[in-house]
Amino acid sequence: ALQDFRTSLALKPQNLVVTRMLAMQYAASPIESQRDPAKAVSLAEDACARSEFLDWRSLAVLAAAHASLVSFDEAINSQRAVLELSPHRELAAERVRLALYQDNRVFRLK
Fold this sequence. Notes:
Elements: H1 2-11, H2 16-28, H3 37-50, H4 56-68, H5 72-85, H6 91-102
């Protein structure tokens, strides 16, 4: 999956969805060798900036990226913004992530 996201981003560098997906892979891949927290933060910050920090999905990826970089205060701040912007149906899952970051734990994809 990681190589597919890299290829997709190379072909369409302005694609916000692909940027988010690649950032999430770098932040939260279950495969340790595929994680790169610094790249995750960089890509997630780019996605957030391009969406003017109004896209809750990009902010959720930024939170996961900060947590993977062991920057839990930043992760918590980003995740709180997610709770403000996400649709009601997503709130329970996003609260679980906030609790992870408050416990200084990272989010991992399954």
